[in-house]
Amino acid sequence: QAAAATVEITIPLDLKSLHSAVAEWVRDHEKTTARYQQELKRRRHDTWFKPAPVIELTERDRYRFRVTSALLKGVEKLGGRVQSASVRGLIEFSVTGEKVEFTVAEKMSQRIKRPTEEEQAWSAFSRHHQAHLHSTGFLRFSMKSYLGGGKRGEWVETSKRHAEHLLPEVIVSIIAAGPKLVEERMARE
Prior knowledge:
By secondary structure, this protein is an alpha+beta fold. The chain has helices at residues 2-6, 20-42, 59-77, 117-120, 163-188, and strands at 81-85, 90-95, 98-110, 133-143, 154-156.
């Protein structure tokens, strides 16, 4: 039933109809950008001190925000609740009364050559990523809550399997994690 309900999950085409938690990230970034512009105007004569630059949201940021919004809406549609959602990608859901931790993050790779400034400018939130890593251009979805059995749920986009194909399976896994966590808690008790 959960899998059938997630078929209707669609990724928004723009940042106008985002989940409220993700829309808050966009508003916070806009406020930070506005403060930066005001600080630049105020200190335009100071040549020795300039505030740290603020980068506009990149296409990768917008894509991650849209996909995360679709994920949050899909989980809520199936009865889960969003407890918290960080712009870093860490999300806490409440499913059947249990806390399910999950991340949506850019898949990174390490290369021998240090990234150039242009390569590091793939995100407006570069301080959230290690500077020596490169973006692969794909998202990674990870279940952080331990569900027993020694394996963690992880889904990674590829050139053939994009987020819209992964989201139904990811959402069903998040919803299924709640009863599994309840079962494990009761076994421990």
